[in-house]
Amino acid sequence: MLVGSTGRVELGSRPGTDPHS
What we know:
- The chain has no helices and 2 strands.
- It is mainly beta.
């Protein structure tokens, strides 16, 4: 997992983005 710029924990390969949106 990684924390994007939105401050949420995300599953994805691109930090700072929200793959769940």
